[in-house]
Design brief:
With 434 residues, this protein is mainly alpha-helical. It is 74% helix and 3% strand.
Length: 434
């Protein structure tokens, strides 16, 4: 058994220490070349792009080379996430207009990286989850309900809090999705506690009710599906999970008939050409943009992505397809899949239920969010209004997504520490026997 422990630990260390140089330098080359290309598109040259052409590769190298020297984190996940962030800056540099600038997005990414570092430290040091989960619940419910009292309505949903008028705002639902995963993991990790299981369901349901009142349908669907999936992963209770999905489907049907804005969104999805200048306009322009890009795209800054009113947020995937082409877009989706697969691997390597469920929860949120927004862009499902993780413009989404990745990286470092301890202990025992 001891030899097996040594072999497994050695294999895991080899996987973590796998050379990521080729991946890293490919990302740095993409960042520098794309931003330099955008620098030369204007006369005089774009100073912001020139600065970012140097700053982005430097930050990427610093993070991927430096952070693993402090904590044994998953380098591949970190490198891939930074690549997605760089795609965000490059895309917005090419198509965005004031007040949405590449510098603004870079600042959001910087804030998100700070949040990621804080999340790594937090998950490594904090231990008493059971004592604090009720506090997390109350704080999350209070925070997500704030827009009902002091919020602003944007794109039909009252889910924003403006800190500085038309300059700085916060979307509480973006941050609470991370705390939802923390609370669900803390409750469901107690496998024998029916009370905690019921409390986790009630907590998720309460958040969904608040989101329904705020008309934030995208976040509502995301929260609901994530809660059901994580509950099933934790309990393996297929019947109750199916019952939850059935109740959600019944609620969706009821909302279709009872709430006019829900019915309008479904009607626009089914036949956007019936209201081509109104509710179906964005979907139609999205499909035109994707078709115009073809396989290899029209080129950076080319095409007409601004014809889509929300080209920088809800429909940024369509804008990427138009500029970079379908091949690049599929590769981008493959990056998300790789991150999710690495996250599942981290979850499977965890020694305790809480960290395993939290890892599963983070990749579940990431996968669902990507599926919902890409599906809406290509008219596979009705548009829900969530953001494409790490790419869409906006500070709340960027900071919350990077904070979630920070939790995942922190858990990967804890797994690495425990594997190292196991290997050292096994090697010492082998030495004693010899």
């Amino acid at each position: 058994m001891t030899k097996k422990t040594v072999a497994i630990g050695t294999m895991r260390r080899a996987l973590r220490r796998a050379d990521t140089s080729l991946l890293l330098y490919a990302i740095v080359l993409f960042q520098a070349s794309a931003m330099l290309l955008l620098t030369l598109r204007t006369d005089p040259i774009d100073t912001q792009s020139l600065i970012l052409a140097g700053v982005m590769p430097a930050v990427t190298l610093l993070c991927v080379k430096g952070l693993p020297r402090i904590w044994k984190i998953d380098r591949v996940i970190l490198a891939l996430v930074l690549f997605l962030c760089s795609v965000s800056v490059v895309t917005l540099t090419a198509i965005a207009r004031a007040p949405i600038t590449p510098l603004t997005q870079a600042v959001y990414i910087g804030a998100g990286l700070v949040g990621m570092l804080a999340a790594i430290v937090f998950i490594r040091l904090f231990r008493h989850w059971n004592r604090w989960k009720i506090v997390f619940m109350l704080l999350s419910l209070g925070f997500i309900a704030l827009p009902l009292l002091i919020g602003e309505t944007k794109n039909g949903a009252k889910n924003w809090i403006e800190l500085v008028k038309d300059v700085v705002g916060v979307q509480p639902s973006e941050f609470v999705k991370v705390s939802l995963m923390v609370v669900l993991a803390a409750c469901l990790a107690e496998r024998q506690s029916r009370v905690m299981k019921a409390l986790s369901i009630l907590f998720g349901a309460a958040l969904c009710v608040v989101l329904l009142l705020e008309r934030d349908l995208g976040a509502l669907l995301l929260y609901f599906l994530a809660t059901v999936i994580l509950y099933f992963i934790a309990t393996s209770n297929g019947w109750l999970s199916l019952a939850g999905l059935g109740a959600g489907a019944a609620g969706a049907v009821a909302a279709y008939f009872a709430l006019p804005y829900v019915k309008k969104r479904v009607v626009d999805w089914r036949n956007p050409w019936a209201d081509a200048s109104g509710g179906g306009y964005q979907v139609i322009q999205s499909l035109i943009a994707i078709g115009s890009g073809g396989l290899i795209g029209m080129g950076l800054g080319l095409g007409m992505p601004r014809m889509i009113p929300l080209y920088h947020s809800d429909f940024v995937f369509a804008a990427i397809c138009e500029q970079f082409g379908m091949i690049f877009a599929l590769c981008l989706l493959a990056v998300y899949v790789l991150i999710i697969m690495r996250g599942v691997s981290i979850a499977m390597s965890c020694r305790d239920g809480f960290h395993a469920l939290l890892s599963f929860g983070i990749v579940t949120i990431l996968g669902l969010q990507t599926l919902l927004i890409v599906g809406g862009n290509i008219r596979l499902i009705p548009l829900t209004g969530v953001t494409l993780p790490f790419i869409a413009a906006g500070g709340s989404s960027m900071v919350s997504c990077l904070a979630g990745i920070g939790l995942l990286l922190g858990i990967s470092s804890l797994n690495a520490d425990r594997d190292e301890d196991d290997v050292r202990r096994a090697e010492w025992q082998e030495g004693e026997r010899a």
